[in-house]
Amino acid sequence: MRVEYVEVLVEEPSMEEALRVLLPKMLGSVPFEVFPFQCKDELLKRLPQRMRGYANRIRADSWFRDHARVVVIVDRDDDRCAELRRRMDAIVADAGLVVRVPLAGSNWTVVNRLAIEELEAWYFGDWAAVRAAYPKVPTTIPSRSGFRDPDAVAGGTWEAFERVLKRAGYFKTGLRKIEAARAVASQMDPGRNTSSSFGKLREVLVEIAGA
Fold first, then answer.
1. Which of 78, 127, 160, 200 is the most exposed place for a label (fewest CB within 10 A)?
2. 3-class secondary structure for 77-125?
């Protein structure tokens, strides 16, 4: 059945800000809402309760069961990808909900996605968008050692992003994450992003939009 509504759970406000700009580019006309938490720990702590709430909602509301999807996005940080995904998928399954897995078809309610290692990796994946927002940053960043794979920037992705912008004359007192999220996301083209973790999110959102 056609997806008519999407709820997205994220771990912090800068991700919310970026997604409010990016989601229409991938979901098209599908309505959505983004619900931010204060941090990753809070989201993961409250996830079981939230999933049980969705399970109750599905039992009471056939429209939500048939036409809504839930997307959960957290930063990988220092966690192992497979372990974090298994933990999150288990929470969904324990609530009695169907989690999206490869080749699962359309009969699912929740999908878990990781930003690797953080939201700022997606900025490195679309450096043209960063340059459109902050024209003084070097054009050569994506070709430099340490930045060629947006999902493997060492030493903290947001810290690396902050350093690059500071050297170009921006955010001299520290990166303002929400402001940067709004500025960069408004320039991003989801189809050209080279971040693998962004690509996995894009894949499922395009699937939802076409369902």
1. 78
2. CCCCHHHHHHHHHHHHHHCCCCECCCCCCCCCCEEEEEECCCHHHHHHC
